[in-house]
């Protein structure tokens, strides 16, 4: 009680500051508790549970258990680091310090503080550089120690570093012009600036979605059209059967980075494209051809005689399983999940900009984070969207996770209605195995984090496992 009164006696800007810090640690501790529960599950479930006997052998089970345990331990340390770093930045006034550094860079190039947008861009560049450098050791460790140890990493250090630099440059090329236009719109927008700002971000996200796959993703990965053949015809037939306006099917060389597998589609209106990771395709995946030596296995020249040529740890799905996976993906489209997600995120963004318009004039928000004199708009955006909205953001992200699981069940049911239930089941089992997913989860952890329902629940819903 005394402590609460003590906090209430503080000036309002101090109250805001400690509330933000306190909430951040509350979320951190909650997440740490959930991860602890999940790690406990990894540690204690050392035998394949009976209900999984048919879908997972004990060797794969143990492999995935150790992989997930390593990943969880890693995210414990990286989470602790980033929470501590964030707290220190706030306590030591890192944000106003970097703003001042940006100000002195401005003076060097002969510009005064009246050029707020330019100073904001300098600030943003410094801030993203800072986080790129502090994040680098963590992502190097994740890729070259953890993923490597469990056989997923396919990158060389040179490729990784080049890729990181490229990603940084491409991000800056998008971030800086978009931010400067947004700040300009807020500056000149008058009373209804939040409507223009929202419309602008809406336009930017639509443009990015449109150009991403054609102009941005190919900067990083090789996309090749799926060769003519049975799989391609089958995919086209399936698309036609549900009037999906398919224009092209690509295979992306995901195996260059990692052996995790995936499939997705993109595009607006009548121009939709499907992308398959090469790691998803049994006959296409380089993982089945080169890489790990498999001395007891013959070269996989004749795919006609599968039983003879199948390497022991062959990865990926066969054609009918790939079609089932695509049946699921197309279910997302047919059921309007994309559109629903876009509508939700745009409503949310409108709401946030409206609240931002109400709050941006409050000087105490700036004072709380060490801006006693000036109130730069960019800093206002950071404080309000990131710190002040954080309880709301947490709640929203939980609701979206719940919604996503619902959508996954619906897409599975759609594939089932296309008569692909058993192929989808075997694809899910294979993918879970290839990606070393652990099929047992703590209920609270999975409720909070899992955007996809646990494997067993999906198999049950698809009818492959009888309810007891
Ligand atoms: Zn899905």
TrEMBL record:
Reactions catalysed, as given in the entry: Hydrolyzes the peptide bond -P2-(S-farnesyl or geranylgeranyl)C-P1'-P2'-P3'-COOH where P1' and P2' are amino acids with aliphatic side chains and P3' is any C-terminal residue
Peptidase M48 domain: residues covered: 226-464
Biased composition (Basic and acidic residues): 297-309
Residues passing through the membrane, by range: 16-34, 121-146, 167-186, 192-213, 342-361
InterPro entries the UniProt entry points to: CAXX_Prtase_1, Peptidase_M48, Peptidase_M48_N
Keyword Glycoprotein: no
Residue ranges constituting the CAAX prenyl protease 1 N-terminal domain according to the UniProt record: 38-222
Any single Gene Ontology cellular-component annotation: endoplasmic reticulum membrane
Cofactor list: Zn(2+)
GO molecular function, one term: metalloendopeptidase activity
Domain of life: Eukaryota
Keyword match Iron: no
Active site feature: 329, 412
Subcellular location: Endoplasmic reticulum membrane
One GO biological process term: CAAX-box protein processing
Bilayer disposition of the protein: Multi-pass membrane protein
Keywords of the record: Endoplasmic reticulum, Hydrolase, Membrane, Metal-binding, Metalloprotease, Protease, Transmembrane, Transmembrane helix, Zinc
Region (Disordered): 288-316
Positions that bind Zn(2+): 328, 332, 408
PANTHER family, alphabetized: CAAX PRENYL PROTEASE 1
Family: Belongs to the peptidase M48A family.
Function: Proteolytically removes the C-terminal three residues of farnesylated proteins.
Annotated protein name in UniProt: CAAX prenyl protease
